[in-house]
Known about the structure:
Chain A is of the alpha+beta class. Chain A has helices at residues 22-26, 44-57, 66-80, 119-124, 146-150, 152-157, 199-206, 221-226, 257-276; strands at 2-5, 8-11, 16-18, 29-37, 40-41, 85-92, 107-113, 126-132, 162-167, 170-174, 178-182, 188-191, 214-217, 229-234, 238-245, 248-249. Chain A folds into 2 domains: 2-113, 2-Layer Sandwich (D-amino Acid Aminotransferase, Chain A, domain 1); 119-271, D-amino Acid Aminotransferase, subunit A, domain 2 (D-amino Acid Aminotransferase, Chain A, domain 2, Alpha-Beta Barrel), CATH 3.20.10.10.
Amino acid sequence: xxxxINGQFVSIQEARLGIRDLALLRGYGIFDFFRVKDNIPLFxxxxxxxxFRSSEIxxxxxxYTKRALKDLVLELIELNNAHRSGIxxxxxxxxxxxxxxxxxxxxxxTQEPIKPLDASVYQNGVALITHEFQxxxxxxxTTGYLTGIWLADKIKxxxxxxxxxxxxxxxxxxxxxxxxxxxxxxTIKTPAANILPGVTRKNILAxxxxxxxxxxxxxxxxxxxxxxxxxxxxxxxxxxPVIKIDETIYSxxxxxxxxxxxxxxFEAFENTWLTDHGVNP
Amino acid sequence: xxxxINGQFVSIQEARLGIRDLALLRGYGIFDFFRVKDNIPLFxxxxxxxxFRSSEIxxxxxxYTKRALKDLVLELIELNNAHRSGIxxxxxxxxxxxxxxxxxxxxxxTQEPIKPLDASVYQNGVALITHEFQxxxxxxxTTGYLTGIWLADKIKxxxxxxxxxxxxxxxxxxxxxxxxxxxxxxTIKTPAANILPGVTRKNILAxxxxxxxxxxxxxxxxxxxxxxxxxxxxxxxxxxPVIKIDETIYSxxxxxxxxxxxxxxFEAFENTWLTDHGVNP
Lengths: 281, 281
């Protein structure tokens, strides 16, 4: 598999960064990630837009226009011809003189195999645990996953898939997913603030609301406990039903009907998008 | 300059890590840093102890005993023979298969030139700004400096040296320093919890308290505003007087007498330590 690193396409085994890079020394880096299906990068413009927003907020300049970056992604996809895969865009703080001040950023684009989630995840739903934590620069897709990775043992012990963060009584997001709750009246809510604005989340919010009404708002821990159904969304997971959070069981311990309907609606939307974007623009 | 990377001493220009390292991709890494004076690593055992504690908490195993790691440090110092310098120990999450789960850690030891702080810092004192923030895994010296680096523009605009973090009305620490306040009755307090236990902080706490009484406790923003003097401590800074925090001026806008006495006492302590450890054990 090839990757792109600072202006060159090289084999991923040869791709290296020096040990003065600020993402390595000080966790100063951003990234983005999207799926590739039949050599088409899914929702690529949304991801490139977000990558540029992350770059602006962290003041890590990108040496390409959005169009040029997209062309590099398409070139890499053509080069690798690896059908079921993901593309990772990584931008780091660069080689810092004083090991603290950002320098000229390093840009790395990798394509990596992905494995689809086990079918049981969709059939049976998943469990989550909660943890009080607020991610730094939440609207930025930073490389900061320390707390989530550190919680791995606790997540495993609870037979959970992941951890849901909350802060001051309000739920926010998971390590790599957004969360939605379906209320008793079938209205759907997702946290509005202190989160990474996920692309799948955005697509769910934009689905035609004939059947369901989805709104962004404050979601309290109490709202969460009283919810009828819960589901999470991400680029890799699409829409995953949640059946348990800490000690609370949702929708009788099996995936909820609203959740499953939305998963179906989202997959139809994705397929339509793929058909519409089947030819490289 | 040479460094040590995964079992080998190589030139720092040749030292590289692969792009699947988890410190790079997910900010999962720890480090430590200490000064070298006349080829003697200052308070090296304290730093190695802390590095091992960080390694235990983050479950990143070190492939050496403390004694063996210290021998590697001494070997590197002898090899480089760079008198005024710092040693950085870095341990990362390793090359992760799924870009999320820690693998076999990468260990890097670098020796780097340091420049002493400008004399004006001690003569005139420094300004700080405050920011509400709690560092993740605060007792661990992680590579997580995102918020501090992101605040650089704000720090610069305020003509400040650094940022003091507080959480729920309690002050904690700076990006790379601990903080002490001298109260009106000359008692000295430093935050006890949610901080990195600094080695200079530990040494200040252990100085013979004939003249001053130092205690670890809760320090509120109100305690801070009412303080007579403020100073910060770190491996590179030793004891630096603070004369302004946000809009509050301390000790008439010049370094306080208690602070300067403690700086002198600390430097005497350091010199005694160096004399006592002048021969490699």
